[in-house]
């Protein structure tokens, strides 16, 4: 009986000794599978981008596209881009004329198409930001919904006037331009109203700075729109030399002030990041 007990004790201890390396090998094998993705599950790729870089890239795309198109039109297609029904001397091409020629139209469409998706993302970001800030305030909460609607409408108007040139269908191009201008003005007005409320209850100097420059760029945009409209009317009514040139100049300033207004998002979301995450399908092959 004593011999049997001792034998069973030896067997149990030897079994434990033999099991330990087996368990260690299983753990090691499991870690290797997780680290080397042997089962075919890829780890997601995460790309982080500061919101400042994101906004700068979004605004610079149409800015560089416009400058490039105006430069090419002025140097290589000067007569075609500055000629009008009045047959009077002009020295600057309008934006519509610049983006209607080739290769300018392809450059402009590429830049606007590439920047449109980030523009929609910025619009949604602002909407969520306003809804969080004004969750208990009905007026500002309603204005944030209108703000999102006009932001989307502004972007759609820009896409419409971009992909339907004045040489192809002038009426559609004109309606797209009107939609862009009207939507952008209303969007900027609502934005300034919302940031006035934010500045009132915020202690951050960045919020006050953002509201201050938003109001300035709004007033500049309204002034440039008024001057552009005046010289466009004067050109069509009296065909005076130089009127179309001044219209084109103020048209540029309208676009530049609009871009500057959108650039204030750098202050609004300075501490935020944009994350792009690639998701892999959980499939074994």
TrEMBL record:
Where does it sit, as one GO cellular component term?
Answer: Golgi membrane
User: How does the record classify its membrane topology?
Assistant: Multi-pass membrane protein
Gene Ontology biological-process entries: GPI anchor biosynthetic process
Pfam families in UniProt:
Frag1
Q: Which UniProt keywords apply?
A: Golgi apparatus, GPI-anchor biosynthesis, Membrane, Transmembrane, Transmembrane helix
The record's subcellular location field reads: Golgi apparatus membrane
Kindly report the protein's main subcellular placement as a broad class. Answer: Golgi
What this chain does, per the record?
Involved in the fatty acid remodeling steps of GPI-anchor maturation where the unsaturated acyl chain at sn-2 of inositol phosphate is replaced by a saturated stearoyl chain. May catalyze the second step of the fatty acid remodeling, by reacylating a lyso-GPI intermediate at sn-2 of inositol phosphate by a saturated chain. The fatty acid remodeling steps is critical for the integration of GPI-APs into lipid rafts.
Output this protein's name: Acyltransferase PGAP2
Q: Which organism is it from?
A: Scomber scombrus (Atlantic mackerel)
Q: What is the lineage of its organism?
A: Eukaryota, Metazoa, Chordata, Craniata, Vertebrata
């Amino acid at each position: 009986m004593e011999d049997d007990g001792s034998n069973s004790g030896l067997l149990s201890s030897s079994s434990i000794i033999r099991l330990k390396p087996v368990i260690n090998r299983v753990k090691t094998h499991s870690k290797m599978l997780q680290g080397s993705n042997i089962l075919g599950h890829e780890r997601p790729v995460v790309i982080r981008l500061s919101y400042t870089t994101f906004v700068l890239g979004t605004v610079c795309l149409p800015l560089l596209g416009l400058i490039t198109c105006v430069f090419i039109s002025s140097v290589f297609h000067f007569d075609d881009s500055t000629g009008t029904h009045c047959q009077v001397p002009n020295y600057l091409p309008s934006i519509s004329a610049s983006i209607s020629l080739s290769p300018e139209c392809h450059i402009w469409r590429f830049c606007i198409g590439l920047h449109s998706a980030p523009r929609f993302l910025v619009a949604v970001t602002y909407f969520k930001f306003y809804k969080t800030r004004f969750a208990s305030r009905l007026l500002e909460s309603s204005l944030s919904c209108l703000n999102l609607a006009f932001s989307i409408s502004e972007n759609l108007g820009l896409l419409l006037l971009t992909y339907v040139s004045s040489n192809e269908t002038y009426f559609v191009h004109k309606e797209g331009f009107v939609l862009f201008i009207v939507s952008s003005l209303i969007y900027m007005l609502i934005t300034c109203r919302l940031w006035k409320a934010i500045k009132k209850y915020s202690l951050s100097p960045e919020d006050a700075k953002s509201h201050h420059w938003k109001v300035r760029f709004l007033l500049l945009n309204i002034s440039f729109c008024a001057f552009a409209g005046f010289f466009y009317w004067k050109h069509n009514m009296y065909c005076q030399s130089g009127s179309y040139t001044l219209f084109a100049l103020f048209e540029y300033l309208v676009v530049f002030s609009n871009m500057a207004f959108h650039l204030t998002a750098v202050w609004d979301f300075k501490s935020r990041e944009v994350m792009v995450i690639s998701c892999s399908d959980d499939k074994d092959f």
